[in-house]
Amino acid sequence: MTAEESTPLLSLRNVRKSFGPIEVLHGIDLDIKAGEVVALLGENGAGKSTVSNIISGTILPSSGEMKWQGAVFAPASPREAIDAGVGMIHQELLLLPHLSIAENLFVGRYPKKAGVVDRKTMEQRAHAGLQRLGLDISPRRLVQGLSTANQQLIEIAKALTLNARLLILDEPTAALGGDETIKLFEQIERLKQDGVGIIYISHRLEEIKQIADRIVVMRDGSKVQEFENADVPVRTIVEAMVGRSLERMFPPIPSPQDRTVLEVRDLSSGLGSFTGINFDVARGEILGIAGLVGAGRTELARAIVGVDPVSKGQVLLDGKDISPRKPRDAIRNGIVLVPEDRKQQGLVLPHSIAENFAYANMNQVARKGWVTRKRARAFADGGILKFGVKGQSHQNADELSGGNQQKVVIAKWLARNPRVVVLDEPTRGIDVGARSSIYDIIVGLAREGVSVIVISSDLEEVLGVSNRVMVMAQGKLSGILNRGEANDVSVMELATM
After folding, report:
1. Fewest CB atoms within 10 A around its CB: which of 15, 115, 134, 432?
2. Residue 89, helix vs strand vs coil
3. Is there a contact between 205 and 240 (Cβ–Cβ < 8 Å)?
4. DSSP 8-state secondary structure symbol assigned to residue 352
5. Mind listing the pLDDT tens digit for each residue in 22-40?
6. For residues 401 and 437, what is the distance between their CA atoms, to the nearest angstrom?
7. Looking only at Cα atoms, what is the longest distance across the chain?
8. Domains of the chain, CATH where assigned
9. pTM to 2 decimals?
10. Residues in domain ABC transporter (predicted)?
11. Residues 170, 175, 176, 178: is their CA dihedral positive or negative?
12. For 246-260, how does the pLDDT look when each residue is reduced to its tens digit (9 = 90+)?
């Protein structure tokens, strides 16, 4: 082995970071070699994002040393890191909705000809980048209106156009279905063969075993364990992440009552995303909805609560047609939606937890049309305590971890004592500890007699929390399975019909 081959692409030695008097990273050592995938794992708040932001030049370390291909590496900005060959794909989508896909892929570095943007070249290169990921969309199309999954793939394509030597992928499959994930993994294998090093951050531990060469586990700002290969039981990884032994992931599921609460009859989307959907949910039942990305699951949820229009069909509550024309109709009838994108649709991030609670519960918080800060905070404090939110009512929502943000979204709607709760991707992008808490909340609702619908791209999750699993494929209902007959194979057979 030559000296060049033995030298890590990137090395971190005793890297520390403090915000004020609080040290959040404690002496991190990390090596990334060319052509390998290193999974960086840990609960939210473990320090993964801080390490990634230091490597990508977003923040500066307080002390320690980094080396890039053997030379001192100290990027003072993301541009310096990109110029060196480091690209980062953030979990939070950073696309500009009013620009085209091609413009987003090359923003800040548009190809030019005779001093002006060479749109033909830009769109040809964008098309090639999209095709590498199997994305059949015109590069001239605006990003606005694209699905979350497609936006995530565009973020990935954007990083790939940088021809980076090191890629940091932060939850790259959080919004992707099975087919998109397979295409991404194929691309990662090609990048490995080209000598690209990859730091892969994900809470989907089963996919880590498929894609990673090594696993590094962080907890509370420290590197606590490193596995030299990915052939490690998931339970062992989880126990390293949380620092304790896990006896279970999913709580016991209660049996539903005989009484039907929600019925959906021959419902078809006014936007053409699904057609002829029929199902019902009993009191205290958890109905899981599975399917590949593009199957129409999210669009169905949005139609049930009046966000998206329907062309025909009915939504019945206790046998009465209450088909919502707008979200307010559903909310008044006791049907609430926890949306798939908590940051864009579930919270007003720059506002406090108390304000976010108040927006969903004005009838309980406002007196004679007035909302006082004291009353709003007292109301939010109840939800914070009940659902174990790690935060205070005066804190802004954007100061919380992903898991705690999700708890706030759920808690503010449950404060209305709804009869039906629809949760779309309830644990997307949150750590295993917060996931367990949310599963407890879901099962607790069922025990209280609430009808719950859980939509998830995580098949293990759907199987783990559901009394029955409804499977959608290409906008149609392809089958409903009882808990005893639902498994990976039976669900995927229906999902690919």
Report:
1. 115
2. strand
3. no
4. B
5. 788 999 999 999 999 999 9
6. 14
7. 77
8. 3-242 (3.40.50.300), 260-495 (3.40.50.300)
9. 0.59
10. 10-245, 256-497
11. positive
12. 544 788 999 999 999
